[in-house]
Amino acid sequence: MTVMRKPVVAGNWKMYKCGDEAAMLAEAVARGASPLSPSVDTVICPPFPALVRVAGVLRSGSVALGAQNMHWENEGAYTGEVAPPMLVDAGCRYVILGHSERRTCFHETDQIVNRKTHAAMAAGLVPIVCVGETLEERETGKTRKVIETQVAGSLKGIGTDLSGIIVAYEPVWAIGTGLTATPEQAQEVHAFIRICLEKIDNRAAAQKTRILYGGSVKPANAGDLFRQPDIDGGLIGGAALDAETFLAVVKAAVV
Ligand code: PEP
């Protein structure tokens, strides 16, 4: 049985764009993505200070708002952190969790990502849970082991809620480097992630879960990646900072 999964293209703006620049970029993306919205879910994830302003621009609903991180508690003495209900209040529907930059620069473990994933779902946010191996891990044949550990650890206890999450496969060596996994390399890992998801929930749920590819996706390579049977769209960094480029990637996800 073939399961139809609506593609998702999410733009991770990282620590770029604020104020008028953020509003203008969001407006241009919303305008271009509107006719594509029946075929592809488009999400943009600006930095925290731009969320409320961008939410105002996205009122028409053709593009959804996401955040790039959050704390797992709903409130408390956690200076500098942002709670899940605060993201909901700002207009977010999605949140990126466990991005490799968070794992590397801020020491986020699978256990932390797991707490955040549960908290996001409890708040009604769709978590985009990132996993991916380093170059050294790939070159030493550890890709599957690393992915399996990250998927199982980050999604522990999610059980039958699996279809409410999105997984992003982002090989660390391909993020912001200009190096992209070949469509075959990416497909192989995506198919493997689906098997890992089956073990967490069941085959039907794993078939419904959307798995995105991220790592130097651009208009020139997006089509070949998105045509792979287990690749359901992309998590886009650098190419999400320009409306025309990002929209070309979004168009490439239309089946
Ligand atoms: C990312 O930051 O999630 C990402 C995939 O970045 P880039 O597209 O720039 O490689």
Notes on the structure:
The chain is of the alpha/beta class. The protein has a single domain, classed as Aldolase class I (TIM Barrel), CATH 3.20.20. Helix content is 42%, strand content 15%. It has an eight-stranded parallel β-sheet with strand order 7-6-5-4-3-2-1-8. The longest helix is centred in the C-terminal third of the chain and has 18 residues. The model has no long low-confidence stretch (mean pLDDT 95). The structure holds phosphoenolpyruvate. Phosphoenolpyruvate (PEP) binds next to β8.
CATH class: Alpha Beta
Taken from the alpha-carbon principal axes, the silhouette is: globular
Strand content: 5-15%
Largest sheet: 8 strands, parallel
* DSSP summary, beta strand count: 8
In the CATH hierarchy, the third-tier topology is known as: TIM Barrel
Indicate the CATH architecture.
Answer: Alpha-Beta Barrel
Radius of gyration: 17 Å
Give the CATH superfamily: Aldolase class I
User: Largest sheet, order of strands side by side?
Assistant: 7-6-5-4-3-2-1-8
- Point out poorly predicted stretches: none
Mean pLDDT: 95
User: Helical amount among residues, as a percent range?
Assistant: 40-55%
Query: Please, how many domains?
Result: 1
Note the gap between the termini. 18 Å
Bound molecules: phosphoenolpyruvate
**Count of discrete alpha- or pi-helical segments spanning 4 or more residues:** 11
- Strand pairing plus helix content: what structural class? alpha/beta
